[in-house]
Amino acid sequence: MGRRQKRNSQESAPMNRQQRAQLDECVDVLLQATLRNDKGWDNYTEIYGLVKRICELERGISFPKEAREHSFPRFNEWLQEHKIDMSSVEIVHFPGQGYGLRARKGLKKGELILSIPQHAVLSSAYAKTTCLADVCSTDPILREMPNVLLSLVVLHELVEPSSKWRPYLQVFPDSFTTPSYFSMEEMALLKGSTAFDDAINMCRNIARQYAYFYRLLQKAVSGSALQRDFTYQAYRWATSAVMTRQNALSSNAGSMLALLPVLDFCNHKAGLPCTDLNASHCAELFAMEDVPAGTQVYNFYGQRTNSQYLVHNGFVVLNNESDVFPLRLGLSKGDPLSARKGELLSRFGLCESSNYPVSFSAPHFTSELLTFVKVFISDETGLLELKEQMDSAKETDTTDNLRPLLSREHETKVWAFLETRLRLVARTIQGSTQLEDLSPCARQAMLLRAEEHELLSRVADYAHSRLQATDTQGEHNSDSTTM
After folding, report:
1. Would you call 224 helix, strand, or coil by DSSP?
2. Which of 36, 60, 224, 314 would bridge 177 by S-S if both were Cys, CB 3.0 to 4.6 A apart?
3. How far is CA 46 from each of CA 4, 193, 203, 207, 242, rounded to the nearest angstrom?
4. Angle 90-91-96 from CA coordinates, rounded to 5°
């Protein structure tokens, strides 16, 4: 969100009183816009316009993020100074994926690859050594949201000239493909996808946090480098850096969010978790699989849907087996049987309208979804049969044991309904894998749409196969009866 600006390390040009007053007014209006109950597209476009105006007013304030590709020589020196052993891997650029880790030698599954000592781990606890020490213990947001605190720590260490962390932070990406970096046109590409609401919510939250901390830092750490160089562009960069690179570390003392140098260059691949915190509080990375020399070393970011990957990591996974599409189903108010259907759904523990997950991986449908559809497509006779099933159920049966049995006739209707509904929804989500001429953000948006279209089409094909199998079984039974 907001215009992308070229970053430089020049000193900030001081604002005059009139410019500062204009910025103060815009920030106040922005904060109010982010607090409205209206959280749809119109609110997003209002916030987008305000952020754009704020970025124009803050144009003279420098952001000391140097070009990433020029920062690796100093970072390699920093790794040696912090005694991080790089004998097993090296940081290289992979076409189409960006920077990642390449094995210098063959690695066996489970073999230790990296060990990051505690003194080289940047966590939210580091705030206690900065100008944020007092405010982080009293401000409710910073106390309850460690990711936000870590974002401010990252920004503080980047703008502080004497920070020991600057060589590490300078090799972070110069920009990201998370939704806060989407233009309004790119955000519009997400309409109809599962990521749309979460994406505009993220932009609203970052804008609200920026406006809040703009005021807080003026009072709490006035005159500091953090307060002087705090801009929307800088805060957006810091939150995106933390969001895409943070790791949750657990120990006997509790859990914390942290950034792990080198380890955070691992790209994602489906598999099993391969990071740990040892007894010496060193963060360790193990080989998730056998890795031949000269090939990429991957890490598993956790089971997420493609919507979650895009919103929180800025990418989409092809053929993601953990992907889920929330299918919206609800009773029609014009249905003369809607009241009886609603009562029956309630007895099954279901609502009259809800989102039901449709999964990329088998079995694709939950029992709750199938139960809803069975009730939804039932006529008066079908509802009586379902009620009889409920009335004859044992009192000790749980809701999970009270899923309705399907006759062949009703099963046919269920699969026919699901196939039709899924194909209709799929038509509203057209994506593309022809991405050459698209911006990085638009590319991810179109990939998401393409993957969600593929998921719905895949599951619709499955429903069609079940429909055919049910029809075939019915024909076979009919033939057997007439013989």
Report:
1. coil
2. 314
3. 18, 21, 12, 11, 26
4. 130
